[in-house]
Specification:
380 residues, alpha+beta, 10-stranded mixed sheet, 12 helices
């Protein structure tokens, strides 16, 4: 079977809702990210055989198949096709896996896996309506925040544990920013400001250097009066885009690329759609089995911080070395622009492998209505 390699990737700085990226359309945001990717990799866009772009709320400025429109805005030739992918929170991790599948099956040699979400301009959930009565007759569908509460209850996770984990996420992200860790995966983005002038955005807006456990303890439960899940121990609503270039060995030889990583294994699972966010637990087990690896073979884990309870419950099952889990912070601090986060996790994990001379990274993300995706990459 043909191997699939990550040549390189890039992402925008992530902005808070109504923050630094609020004045740029998501299709334009995705387009400029694609432009920076092909420039960074010295790729002729005409050689790209497909663009897969993850986006969750496909309505308004994110509608009309944004996966096709963004490459056109970016100046790609009309012959380069594009598709929009919705695996909810794992949409751009899904596009990475789809790109790898296309390459491994000898369908394509060069594919871009990307993602975008402007949760400011296109509010989460605005693409939906009411649930089918047939669905509701089978499942007691609840908001994800209630699912996070159910997880905390099942794994006996108290408010102090969730807040402590979330505080650590901010501190790790702040330390990473101080050390310019994210510089390799982000680019300087020029965006319009409220003053009508253009401004250059360089760093993620989400991490809070001024937060502390005392402040976090004052936040009210967000989903149930006696609950433990708050805005402080949940992922931030954010804006951003990411893009990676994947290639076969044939494309590497043809275009002179130097790959950074190999896609080792991929998995996708379904779980109970009510508790909904436990998917990373079986997805991790499944992808390790597919890779023929043991848990201890993994050098870094990027487990998406949709909620602190999701990561801590995963940890209760696997008992990891927590220094290997989200070592540079996660979505609680950096933000979670739904369609773009998977690409960000892959890039952050890859950068960590290169800095530490590690071999394997495992990336996994929970998904609404009870799914999860996991991917293992190997540094080359």
């Amino acid at each position: 079977m043909t191997e699939a390699y990550i040549i390189d990737g890039i992402r925008t700085p992530f902005g808070r809702r109504n923050g630094i990226l609020k004045n740029i359309r998501p299709d334009d945001l995705a387009a400029v990210t694609l432009q920076h990717l092909v420039s960074r990799t010295h790729t002729d866009p005409a050689t790209v055989e497909d663009v897969r772009l993850g986006c969750v709320t496909q309505i308004g400025e994110q509608g009309f198949n944004i996966g096709r429109l963004a490459p056109l805005i970016a100046g790609f030739p009309v012959e380069v096709p594009g598709a929009t992918v919705n695996r909810m929170c794992a949409s751009s991790l899904e596009t990475v896996n789809q790109a790898a599948q296309a390459i491994k099956s000898d369908t394509h040699d060069l594919v871009i896996a990307a993602g975008v979400e402007s949760m400011t301009r296109v509010p989460m959930g605005s693409d939906g309506s009411t649930f089918s009565n047939q669905l509701l007759a089978q499942y007691q569908i609840v908001p994800q925040g209630i699912s996070a509460e159910l997880i905390a209850e099942k794994w006996h996770l108290d408010r102090e544990a969730l807040d402590a984990y979330s505080y650590q996420s901010h501190m790790r992200a702040i330390a990473a920013q101080h050390d310019h860790y994210f510089d390799k995966e982000t680019f300087d983005l020029t965006v319009p400001g409220d003053d009508g002038e253009m401004h250059t955005v360089r760093t993620d807006e989400g991490p809070r250097a001024d937060t502390n456990l005392e402040k976090m303890a004052t936040l009210r439960p967000a989903f149930k009066p006696d609950g433990v899940v708050t805005a402080g121990n949940s992922s931030q609503i954010s804006d951003g885009a990411s893009a990676l270039l994947l290639a076969s060995e044939n494309a590497i030889n043809r275009y002179g690329y130097t790959p950074r990583a190999r896609i080792v294994a991929m998995s996708v699972v379904g779980v109970d759609p009510v508790i909904m966010l436990t998917g990373p637990i079986p997805a991790t087990r499944k992808v390790l089995d597919k890779a023929g690896l043991k848990f201890d073979d993994i050098d870094v884990f990027e487990v998406n911080e949709a909620f602190a309870s999701v990561v801590l419950a995963w940890g209760e099952e696997y008992h990891p070395d927590w220094n290997k889990v989200n070592p540079h912070g996660g979505a609680i601090a950096i933000g979670h622009p739904l369609g773009a986060s998977g690409g960000r996790l892959v890039l952050t994990a890859l950068n960590h492998l290169e800095v530490t001379n590690g071999h394997y990274a495992l990336i996994t993300m929970c998904i609404g209505w009870g799914m999860a995706v996991a991917t293992i990459i190997e540094r080359v």
